[in-house]
Amino acid sequence: MVDIAAELRRQVDSRQDFIAPQGAMVVKAGDGIGYPVTLEGLNGNHFGITPHAHGQFAQHLGIPQKYYDRMLTEKPGLLADNINAWLADKVEEKRMVRTLDGEVRGFLSAKFRPLDNFDLADAVLPTLVARKVKMMSQELTATRMYLKGILPDLSEPEPIPGTEWGVGHNISTERRIVAAIVISNSDVGAGTLRIEPSVFVTHCTNLAVLSQAAMKKYHIGRAFDVDASNYEIYRDSTRRLDDAAFWAKVVDITNAAFDPATFKAAIEQIRKAAGMKIESDALPKVVEVAVEKLSLPVRTGNSILTHLARGGDLSQWGLSQAITASAESHKDLSYEEATQLERAGGEIITLGPGDWRLISEAA
Question: pTM, whole model, 2 decimals?
Answer without folding.
Answer: 0.86
